C-alpha cells in the first residue's frame, strides 16, 4: 500500500471529525455555504457510502443515511451512463453531476476522483437558488478538493 493510501486509510475508522480529509474539507464546505445564502446542507462521503463530514444536517444519523443514499444515487447514475454509452471510461463521467429537483430546492451530487478510496461524493442542498449556481459551486468545490487531495 502506498504511503498516501495508508495515510488516508483512517477515513474508514469511526471518528470522522478528526481525520485529515474532514479537517481539510470543512473550509471548502463552509465557503460554499457562506457564499450562497440558499445552501442549507453540504455533505462529503466516500464512494461506498460512509460519512466523512457535513454541515447543516440535523443529526449524525441523518448525515450517515444521506452519505449512503448519495453514494447509491451517484452509482445508479453512473450505471445508466454506461448503459447509454458502453464505450465511456471511468474518467469520462468524472465531471458529471446528478441533480434532483425538489419542490422548494435542489440537491446536487458530484464525484471526486480519489484513488485510495476510488472516489468521494460531494452533495450540496439548496433552497431559493438557481440550479446552475448550485451545479457550478459544487463542481468548483469538487475540483478544489481534488487538487488538494492530489497535492497531499
From TrEMBL:
<protein>
    <recommendedName>
        <fullName>Roadblock/LAMTOR2 domain-containing protein</fullName>
    </recommendedName>
</protein>
Amino acid at each position: 500500500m502506498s504511503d498516501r493510501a495508508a495515510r488516508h486509510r483512517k477515513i474508514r475508522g469511526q471518528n470522522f471529525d478528526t481525520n485529515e480529509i474532514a479537517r481539510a474539507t470543512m473550509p471548502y464546505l463552509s465557503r460554499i455555504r457562506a457564499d450562497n445564502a440558499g445552501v442549507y446542507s453540504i455533505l462529503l462521503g466516500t464512494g461506498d457510502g460512509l460519512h466523512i463530514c457535513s454541515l447543516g444536517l440535523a443529526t449524525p444519523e441523518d448525515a450517515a443515511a444521506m452519505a449512503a443514499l448519495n453514494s447509491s444515487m451517484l452509482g445508479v447514475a453512473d450505471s445508466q451512463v454506461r448503459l447509454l454509452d458502453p464505450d465511456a471510461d471511468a474518467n469520462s463521467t468524472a465531471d458529471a453531476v446528478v441533480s434532483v429537483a425538489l419542490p422548494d430546492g435542489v440537491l446536487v451530487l458530484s464525484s471526486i476522483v480519489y484513488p485510495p478510496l476510488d472516489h468521494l461524493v460531494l452533495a450540496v442542498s439548496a433552497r431559493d437558488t438557481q440550479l446552475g449556481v448550485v451545479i457550478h459551486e459544487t463542481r468548483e468545490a469538487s475540483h478544489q478538493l481534488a487538487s488538494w487531495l492530489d497535492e497531499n
